[in-house]
């Protein structure tokens, strides 16, 4: 897990699925401090930007609602608005970079 960049969400709080933990690498990669990330939703809407696909966003929301596995590559944005190209949304509350 040393080189993993991830967030962990609480699936017991439907509609938000708040982030309850984020790795140091996730903070470094996105440019956000841990305090800025904690309690945001694990769909990471705060990383959405103009090139993030609306279809992918809808798929993520549906997967969380249905507690279904979903694998996508998305365009998300760092705090400084630079694009992050490859994001794999692996499971309901498990995402890796």
UniProtKB/TrEMBL annotation:
Example of a GO MF term: voltage-gated potassium channel activity
Top-level taxon of origin: Eukaryota
Alphabetical list of InterPro entries matching this protein: KCNH_animal-type, PAS, PAS-like_dom_sf
Domain PAS: 17-84
SUPFAM superfamilies assigned to the protein according to its UniProt record, in alphabetical order: PYP-like sensor domain (PAS domain)
GO cellular component term, pick one: plasma membrane
Parts of the chain that traverse the membrane: none
Secretion signal span: none
Gene3D superfamilies with a match to the protein in the record: PAS domain
GO BP: any one term: regulation of membrane potential
PANTHER family found in the cross-reference section: EAG-LIKE K[+] CHANNEL, ISOFORM A, VOLTAGE AND LIGAND GATED POTASSIUM CHANNEL
Name of the protein: Potassium voltage-gated channel subfamily H member 8 isoform X2
Annotated organism of origin: Aphis craccivora (Cowpea aphid)
């Amino acid at each position: 897990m040393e080189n993993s960049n991830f967030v962990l969400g609480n699936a017991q709080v439907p509609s938000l699925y708040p982030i309850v933990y984020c790795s140091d690498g996730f903070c470094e990669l996105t440019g956000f401090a841990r305090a800025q990330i904690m309690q945001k939703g694990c769909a990471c809407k705060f990383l959405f930007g103009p090139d993030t696909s609306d279809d992918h966003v809808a798929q993520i929301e549906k997967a969380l609602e249905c507690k279904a596995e979903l694998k996508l590559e998305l365009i998300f944005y760092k705090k400084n608005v630079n694009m992050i190209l490859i994001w794999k949304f692996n499971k309901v509350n498990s995402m890796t970079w």
